[in-house]
């Protein structure tokens, strides 16, 4: 059963890449029960941007990265916003919602929730 759920997530990631937009789990109507917690987070050293980032996973399995929220999302919404040269270089490396670290952490939590419910 867990393999089927993860296959749906892989399909979801591919759809996001094809559409080049954010797609939430709720929009795809994937049958994953909400988590038993409201929010969980972990801080990692992201080698993509060479900085520490916090990855947050919410009850509905939405995943956010603090670095992306602070820099890259702001740059897309406000093109006139000025960032240092170092940050601009890192923006090209950041994968945003498709980041392997964020998706991997969320998939790990989904597996833990599935095991806890058995």
Could you explain how this protein is built, in words?
There is one protein chain. The longest helix has 18 residues, at 2-19. The chain is 52% helix and 16% strand. The radius of gyration is 15 Å and the shape is elongated. Residues 23-29 have low confidence and may be disordered. The protein is built from five helices and three strands; from the N terminus they run H-H-E-E-E-H-H-H. Strand 1 (39-46) and strand 2 (51-58) form a beta hairpin. With 118 residues, the protein is α+β, with helices and mostly antiparallel strands. Strands 1-2-3 form a three-stranded antiparallel sheet. It has one domain (33-117). The termini are close together.
Unreliable runs, pLDDT <50, ≥5 residues?
23-29
Strand order of the largest sheet: 1-2-3
Indicate the structural class.
alpha+beta
What percent of the residues sit in helical stretches (DSSP H or I)?
40-55%
Assign an overall shape: elongated
Number of helical segments with 4 or more residues: 5
Described by strand count, sense and barrel closure, the largest sheet is:
3 strands, antiparallel
Distance between the termini: 11 Å
Let me know the number of strands: 3
Features of the shown structure:
118 residues; alpha+beta
Layout of helices and strands:
Layout: H1 2-19, H2 25-28, E1 39-46, E2 51-58, E3 63-65, H3 66-77, H4 85-93, H5 100-117
Antiparallel strand pairs: 1-2, 2-3
Short description:
This protein has 118 residues and is α+β, with helices and mostly antiparallel strands. It is built from five helices and three strands.
């Amino acid at each position: 059963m867990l393999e089927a759920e993860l296959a749906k997530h892989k399909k979801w990631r591919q759809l996001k890449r094809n559409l080049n937009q954010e797609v939430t789990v709720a929009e795809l109507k994937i049958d994953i029960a909400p988590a038993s917690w409201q929010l969980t987070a972990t801080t990692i050293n992201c080698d993509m941007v060479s900085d520490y980032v916090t990855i947050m996973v919410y009850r509905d399995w939405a995943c956010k990265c603090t670095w992306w929220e602070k820099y890259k999302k702001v740059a897309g919404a406000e093109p006139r916003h000025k960032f240092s040269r170092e940050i601009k270089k890192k923006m090209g490396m950041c994968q945003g919602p498709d980041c392997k670290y964020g998706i991997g952490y969320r998939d790990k939590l989904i597996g833990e929730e599935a095991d806890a419910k058995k």
